[in-house]
Design a protein that fits this description.
With 121 residues, the chain is of the alpha+beta class. Helices cover 30% and strands 26% of the residues.
Length: 121
């Protein structure tokens, strides 16, 4: 007696192959101050980075680093002679979200990019 083919065995593809092809990666969940920074960027984008401490995020550079490490596309544009709360800053970063908002998480390639001769060691 011949065994009936299951839907996953169509065209010689296994279940793992067909389900992996249909799954799209989702942005990682963030919590705590990373979630607050992401929510502020979504609401007030673009915004000055120096506004974040006034909103309760004193270590905003670390939170932005964490979000970028998870794959979020956060763009920093340096602006000169920025006035904020009555003070002139010689340089300030304006943060914005790129398109797409999230991509694959980045690997730490800074050493390879800055010092390619060390990559062969």
């Amino acid at each position: 007696m011949k065994k009936a083919a299951t839907p996953c065995e169509n065209n010689g593809l296994s279940c793992a192959t067909t389900t992996q092809a249909n799954i799209k990666p989702k942005p990682p969940l963030v919590s705590g101050q990373c979630a607050e920074v992401l929510a502020m960027l979504l609401e007030h984008c673009p915004m000055l980075a120096i506004e974040l401490p006034a909103m309760g995020i004193p270590q905003y550079c670390a939170r932005i680093h964490d979000l970028r490490a998870k794959g979020y596309n956060i763009i920093s544009t340096i602006e000169y002679d920025v006035s904020y709360q009555g003070r002139i800053y010689s340089r300030a970063a304006r943060l914005s979200l790129g398109t797409p908002l999230w991509g694959e998480p980045s690997s730490d390639k800074t050493t390879l990019d800055l010092f390619p001769e060390e990559a062969t060691l």
